[in-house]
Amino acid sequence: MEKQYVIGVLVANISGVLSRVSGMFTRRGFNIDSLTVGETESAGLSRITVAFRGDDDIKERIVTQLEKLHDVKEVEVLDEHETVIRELLLLKVRNDAATRQDIMAAVEIFRSKIVDYSKEALICELTGETSKIDAFIDLMKAYGIMEMCRTGIVAIERGANCLRTLMERGQ
Amino acid sequence: MELTGAQIVIETLIEQGCDLLFGYPGGQVTDLFDALYQRRDKIRFVLTAHEQGAAHAADGYARASGRVGTVMATSGPGATNLVTGIAAAYLDSVPVVAVTGNVPCDQIGRDSFQEVDILGVSMPVTKHNFIVKDIRDLAETVREAYRIAKSGRPGPVLVDIPKDVQQAKCEFTPAAAPIEPEPLRRASAHRLARAAEMIAEARKPYIYFGGGVIAGNAAAEVRALAEKIDAPMGCSLMGLSAVPSEHPLFLGMQGMHGHYAASAAEDEADLVIALGVRFSDRATGKKERFARHFNIIHIDIDGAELNKNIPAQLTVRGDLKDALIRLNEIVQPQTHPEWRARIGELRQEEAKRTAQSHAVRRNAALTHDSIIDAVAAVAPEDAVIVTDVGQHQMWTAQRYPLKTPRSFLTSGGLGAMGFGMGAAIGAYLAAGKRPVLFTGDGSFGMNLNELACAVTEQIPLTVIIMNNGVLGMVRQWQALFFDRHFSGTTLNRKTDFVKVAEGFGAQGARAETPAELAAALEKAFRCHTPFVIDAKIDTDELVLPMLPPGGSIDDIITVIR
């Protein structure tokens, strides 16, 4: 059955590692919904969060192929019910006297923030799960989205489990 | 001691046990070549005609010996010319370290002269690759390259070294011994116990083994398992030579051009024990057919191969040799008289179909079969059989009587025409055993320039060209599946291969009859330099049997009328 998976990947923080990881997906015909990368608490390690759609078989193949990459130190499929998933959106919408009040109301209900205000445009900032971001964008379409960008998701497991502990245990 | 980067590379190669380096010089490796000159007492350098030949030679060296092969080339075209050779090693899991020079760090990314992002180019065809931008990382990186190349499932590793790093200086402390590979993962006892249970329940077990048996040095253990549980064996192209061809339980190569009995036995089995294989489409045919009526136990060192192409009921990840030693201890001896009788019938059916196929053969004086038999009759016992890619490769794989592991070298996964010349040179320099290269007029044309290298290095190489005047394998597909539209496959060259050989300083002979072939072979095997035999065979000869791509044993073609 096809569903969305989110995996956390600890990688060596060296040049080229992103190419290796994303290249594996391209080369083997796996599609990426979202990929984010950033530094971690440990020097020398970066963390990549990849979201993709697929069945259990594809998920297994992705995990085992990632584990083969020399610079990949740990791979974990994150359980959707036990994971905090967030995405950040910056959205520029037309600032118009006729719609301003509606936009402001939506911003408040979604717990978004206006981070830039000019005569012609407003920039809203929103964090949340993908579904919340999607809903907000959907709503804003009516008011004239001028441009937007979203970070793609980052995800971290609830509780005391840590990818790095897994990595250290595996070594 | 303080050394230049170039000296550090050469010292590290020596320390890692590299005694032979294949390659080709160029502008960005002049420092490395100078350092090599200083240590020419320790490393023999073999100059090939082309970097591709050098990469195949390093690969052939590794395949024949089990040691890591090493190749060096300059930046840009030198590096890109290595790529086919590196890819061939990657697809067949061969440990090779490739060292390339690059433009100085401050010129990288500016499209400098002979600059290519070889890291990016080689990423999909290497197990791992490095660029060293800091001389302090150089020695450790080269050591790490050897470690990765020979650890677990082996593979090629490329190290790219900008010229300024070669020229910089740094303290160097040689290591006392070559770096150890990572410890091999051991199969779980629980899973091996389950495997033994499945084997005990099976009435018609079949062993399908591949190149992992040779790389994992587990040939004796595979035979022991087959004999203990009375199971017939078949193999992939890469598995050939692991088990002697005449072993009574061995049915030969299975798959697209495999033996009928091997493919049929696999199809009728109730348990397939897959050892060191990756279920390549060429070895398995139709995927859906698989696992329809048999169970699979899949043992491999590479976890990513388990359930990749074919789902198995039981997967066991671990070193094959260790896993089989332990499995052989716990399986109960078995006999399967009914299954054995059925295998006998399949063998008879195979013989019958082969005879039918021969009956419709054109009357050529020389056939691929007669050529292979004539060579096998007079070649030294310990000859290393090398092939290029195409019809001659499949014929040789089907028929040549092989005896010991690492005596059959072929480009299986990549299927790189032109593999053979370099591989044969490397194999001889590694193992000192006479190489025999079976090739075709197409494949030989790709890298015959390496005759120059083979002559210089005095390789007693016998080249047998099965010359049919066409690119036979593609032509075969055109004959069978494209209404005989022979598009782009007719060579019809005026090349005189005997004169070509002589022009390179080698010897040669043309053979159109069995007597001429026998005379040529007689000379070739007495010769201490390369000897090229141009053997004429019929243009329309096909490789049979053939499982059409994506087909099953039901679709097998054994006779063309």
What are its keywords?
heterodimer, A: alpha+beta, Alpha-Beta Plaits, 5-stranded antiparallel β-sheet, B: about 550 residues, alpha/beta, Rossmann fold, 6-stranded parallel β-sheet, 22 helices, 20 strands, about 40% helix
Describe the protein in words.
The complex is a heterodimer of chains A (171) and B (561). With 171 residues, chain A is an alpha+beta fold. Chain A has two domains: 3-78, Alpha-Beta Plaits, CATH 3.30.70; 85-153, ACT-like. Chain A, domain 2 (Alpha-Beta Plaits), CATH 3.30.70.1150. Helix content of chain A is 32%, strand content 40%. In chain A, the strands form two sheets. In chain A, strands 5, 6, 7, 8 and 9 form a five-stranded antiparallel β-sheet that branches. Chain A has a four-stranded antiparallel β-sheet with strand order 2-3-1-4. Chain A is elongated and about 60 Å long. Chain B is α/β, with parallel strands linked by helices and 561 residues long. Chain B has 22 helices and 20 strands. The longest helix of chain B is centred in the middle third of the chain and has 23 residues, at 337-359. Chain B starts with a strand and ends in a 25-residue tail after the last strand. The model of chain B has no long low-confidence stretch (mean pLDDT 96). The interface between A and B is medium-sized, with 15 and 15 residues.
